Amino acid sequence: MEYQDIIKDWKQKKFRPLYWLEGEEDFFIDQVSNYAEHHLLDEAERGFNLTVLYGKDTDWSTVINACRRYPMFAERQVVVLKEAQSMKDILKLEAYIDNPLASTVFVVAHKQGKIDGRSKMAKLIKEKGVLLSTKKMYDNQLPAWVDAFVSSLGRAISQKAGILLVDHIGNDLSRMANEIEKLLVNLPPDKKIDENDIEKYVGISKEYNVFELQNALGQKDISKVMRIIGYFAANPKAGPIQMVLPALYNFFSKMSMVFGVKGGEKEIAAAIGVHPFFVKDYVSAARQYGLEGTEKAILLLHTYNLRSIGINDSGVEDGELMKELVYKLMY
To answer: Which UniProt keywords are listed (predicted)?
Structure first.
């Protein structure tokens, strides 16, 4: 079950007595627990029927006592346990989970970890309630996620604008969602988000960013590469070397995988883990560099990563290091 399915059920007044939210992706867990806290009860009902507890500040007996209360002047009560991973003796909730109160909706937010799927408690959770196990999204899934998230807000975003956001923010979905929501506040209701909006309101240059640097390197467009590196040198926050080097290493590593794939764009996309939209960029770059040139690039990136942290380096400024690196990558 996906997090959207839980919220969809709730909107249709379909409730289970337990929702256990766990795993690596905090955003999905927060979406469900926050919805439970703010939308399952109306304002008049919340005063008597909503309990929000935090794992680090509570104990198992307090949680169970809260869950065993009956609702007052409402069909159900809601108990939300946040930061459950910080609560001692959490396994002692097993007794309640085995026999939950039907009039209580108990939502457990257990971030950055999972309970043992072989344990009795895990089996009880699946039997008595709903288990949502979340994972971090892969890079190639992010553009589609951005598009879907914007659509869920009743808006639209251009493909280029979505790529700029993904390139700048990565897979921090909470930050991504915050930036999108902040952006929409500044735009007319019928305005489609484009790269100009990203540049103006999020502070990401549509011309001078890591994504454009990758493309320019892939095409061996030295003029454009040097313009971007010059911009990064003059504006260190726009392209810090600690962000640029891992991105380029990822780019060339994926490019190296192209040489071992038999098939078309679909097979290449699956093998290197990128959205099919980007495959042509990797294939074109692979032709420019060849296998030997790609392997040389990966070794150079490793060397300059060490230099960026002071190993085998005499204190060259980051901007100069990047200029050296990109020149050697292309020649």
So the answer is: DNA replication, DNA-directed DNA polymerase, Nucleotidyltransferase, Transferase
Distance of alpha carbon 16 from alpha carbon 101, whole angstroms:
10
Residue 255 CB contacts under 8 Å (≥ 6 apart), including other chains:
218, 282, 285, 286, 289, 294
Angle at 207 between CA 202 and CA 209, to 5 degrees: 65
What is the Cα 29 distance to its own chain's centre? 12
Helices (H), the chain: 3-11, 26-39, 43-49, 60-67, 94-98, 120-128, 142-152, 159-169, 173-185, 195-197, 210-218, 222-234, 241-258, 265-272, 279-308, 318-330
CB 197 within 8 A of CB 183: yes
Q: Give the list of residues 6+ apart from residue 267 with CB closer than 8 angstroms, or none.
A: 261
Helix axes 318-330, 222-234, angle to 10 degrees: 170
What domains appear along the chain, each with residue ranges and CATH number? 3-134 (3.40.50.300), 139-202 (1.10.8.60), 210-330 (1.20.272.10)
Q: Are 167 and 198 in contact (CB under 8 A)?
A: no
Could you give the 3-state DSSP secondary structure of residue 125?
A: helix
Length of the chain: 331
Neighbours of 291 (CB within 10 A): 13
pLDDT in tens, 153-207: 999 999 889 988 988 888 899 999 999 999 999 999 999 999 999 988 888 888 8
Q: What angle do CA 318, 168, 227 make, to 5 degrees?
A: 50
Q: Are residues 79 and 70 in contact, defined by beta-carbon separation less than 8 angstroms?
A: no
- List, for residues 210-235, the tens digit of each pLDDT value: 889 999 999 999 999 999 999 999 98
For 216-285, what is the HEC assignment? HHHCCCHHHHHHHHHHHHHCCCCCCHHHHHHHHHHHHHHHHHHCCCCCCHHHHHHHHCCCHHHHHHHHHH
Paired tokens of 99? 């026999």
- In 57-103, beta strands by DSSP E: 77-82
d(Cα 57, Cα 305) in Å, to the nearest integer? 42
